[in-house]
Amino acid sequence: MLDFNTNHKALVLTAFIVFVVLSFGVAIFPANEMQKYQPLPEQEDLTEQEFKGLKIYNAEGCVACHTQQVRNIEMDQVWGKRPSVPEDYHFSKKRLDVWRQSASVLGSERTGPDLTDIGRRQPSESWHLLHLYNPRAVVKESIMPNFPWLFKEVDSNRVKASDVVVAVPDEFLDDKSKKVVATDEAIQLVAYLQSLQQAQMPENSEPEFIPFSKKNKKSNDQTTEASSGLDGEKLFTSTCATCHQSTGQGVPGAFPPLAGSEVVNNKDAKKMIRIILEGYDEMEGYAAMPGFAEQLSDAEIAAIMTYERSHWGNDAPEVTEDDVRKVREELENTKAQ
Questions:
Q1: What is the pTM assigned to this prediction?
Q2: Domain 48-195 class, CATH top level
Q3: I need a surface site. Which of 24, 98, 137, 292 has the fewest CB within 10 A?
Q4: DSSP label at 114?
């Protein structure tokens, strides 16, 4: 028998064998298995800017508080349209350089929300930049730290045409005479966050969420079939409230209010529909709004607009799915010409 007390060679050899076995079991075999997974057909590789953003995401320790894994349980459905699959991580595991492997983005703790599909949930560059500069500016209850080193304060008369100026409310500015400009690192990080969108899987191959109970599954199926029962308030909360706030008051100096808005209260909803579909960047003093033509269906846009036009003191007619469809078709026909 081996006597580790008197035979140091046996002790060292045994420790080495255990180390090798564990290395193969914990690292080498799993890594080799991951090489078998190919990207999904509609999944796009990271651009150079997005890949630099991934490096910053790792360097700033974002993975410590944010996950990128939608579990297959019903409560995770808010973070993505389907559960995550191994193929989703094909491009995020690229080596940072010759010597360094990219850190895992799976995460293990949701101190902050899951970011798997954040590029679709929140596509606005302006929102992300303001959120990085001071999270409390857009989410009052946020416990996320500020990242001021990703920005620089510049005298108003020294702002360049190429600078990306962040629309920061006055109450969050240290020096109101200066402008907050995003650094290249901030732009790259936001580009990476915007790239985080779940790719479409081949038909009939998407994994399903496990419902809390059979009763809930039946209820969910009935809700899916009844498209007319879309909850405008719920859709607004998940899609629009981060910028315009749940009160409809927006964020002064960053995102305009919906309460009392002439566009929202206009009986003719055509302009409002166009803004939601195409985006808007014509209000001085406010950040640009991205378009939601690809993220939202006609029925979802109609439900959101009807909610907005009937709350916070607003009083405008209901918007139908057909109203949105007509404007969408007009815009598509105009682009095709």
A1: 0.74
A2: mainly alpha
A3: 98
A4: -
Who's near 121: CB < 8 A, 6+ residues apart? Answer: 238, 239
45-98 pLDDT, tens digit per residue, is: 999 999 999 999 999 999 999 999 999 988 888 888 899 988 888 888 777 777
For the domain made up of 226-336, the CATH class stated in words is mainly alpha
- 16-52 burial, b at 16+ Cβ within 10 Å, e below that, comes to eeeeeeeeeeeeeeeeeeeeeeeebeebeebeeebbb
Q: What is the SS3 assignment for 200?
A: coil
E strands along 36-186, which residues?
151-155, 165-166, 178-182
Give strand ranges (E) for 167-309: 178-182, 279-280, 289-290
What is the rounded distance in angstroms from the CA atom of residue 7 to the CA atom of residue 12? 9
84 touches 91 (CB < 8 A):
no
Question: Can you give the residue ranges of every domain in the chain?
Answer: 48-195, 226-336
With beta carbons less than 8 A apart as the criterion, state whether 124 and 243 touch: yes
Q: Decide: 56 and 189 in contact? Cβ < 8 Å.
A: yes
Q: pLDDT tens digit string along 231-283?
A: 888 888 888 888 898 889 888 878 888 999 999 999 999 999 999 998 888 77
For residues 51 and 59, give the distance between their C-alpha atoms in angstroms, rounded to a whole number: 12
Q: Do domains 48-195 and 226-336 have the same CATH topology?
A: yes
Give dist(CA 159, CA 63) in Å, integer. Answer: 33
